[in-house]
Write a structure and sequence with these properties.
The protein is built from 6 helices and 11 strands. The chain is an alpha+beta fold. It is globular and about 50 Å long.
Length: 217
């Protein structure tokens, strides 16, 4: 089984507690057990520098923005799936969000078939659980994936320009652009085009030059 990327949906085996790297407080263990017992996934997170080679870090946000993190051995994983597509979760979004979400999908379609728009954060958790997560101050957290095959600066710059043009409405558009190597950069930061940007992956965190991020595949 592959390693989960950040924001991937990850389901665990029934014997997941035996693969814990560090004990969980009883209240957190109970909340996590209830969530997993309902057949719901966790989200892929970034590993810590000191983690063992076979450690996977996962996260869960409960209603009320209560966040749980867990470190397990890779053997605890049962299934991995990409983040939900924005198009899949439209019916779970507030009615006031839907026109803006469709505008993002239209933009992605205009930029090419290789652009995928996925979601994480409050709307994703709300869709997965059927429980209210989205609040009036929630952002729409996007994960924008561009097919690495033959991509050009124009693909990325057109997408960033379109997102910037959608600024100023509700919900606020936030999130990351996923690079072909699986690492992520905040799309707002990339749109500002500083000389270097902070880039995150499952196992790394560091600055990379703008020219490298925009280089054609």
């Amino acid at each position: 089984m592959r390693w989960p990327e950040r924001h991937d949906r990850v389901w665990l085996r029934p014997d997941w507690p035996q693969w814990l790297r560090t004990p969980l407080p009883p209240a957190e263990a109970a909340a996590l057990g209830d969530w997993l017992g309902a057949g719901l996934p966790l989200a892929g997170a970034r590993n810590a520098p000191h983690d063992a080679a076979d450690t996977v870090r996962l996260g869960l946000t409960l209603p009320g923005r209560r966040r749980l993190g867990v470190a397990l051995g890779h053997a605890a994983l049962a299934r991995i799936a990409p983040p939900l597509a924005l198009a899949e979760v439209l019916d779970s979004a507030p009615v006031s969000w839907r026109a803006r979400a469709r505008a993002v999908l239209d933009l992605a379609g205009f930029c090419g078939a290789g652009v995928q728009v996925q979601v994480y954060g409050s709307l994703s958790w709300q869709h997965l659980s059927g429980t209210a997560y989205v609040t009036p101050d929630s952002d729409l957290d996007l994960l924008l994936c561009i097919d690495g095959s033959g991509r050009s600066n124009g693909d990325i710059l057109s997408l960033l320009a379109g997102l910037t043009a959608l600024e100023g409405g509700t919900p606020r558009l936030d999130g990351e652009l996923r690079l072909p190597d699986g690492s992520d950069v905040a799309w707002r930061e990339l749109a500002a085009r500083p000389p270097k940007l902070l880039v995150r992956s499952r196992s790394t965190l560091g600055f990379r030059p703008l020219a490298e991020l925009l280089a054609p595949a």
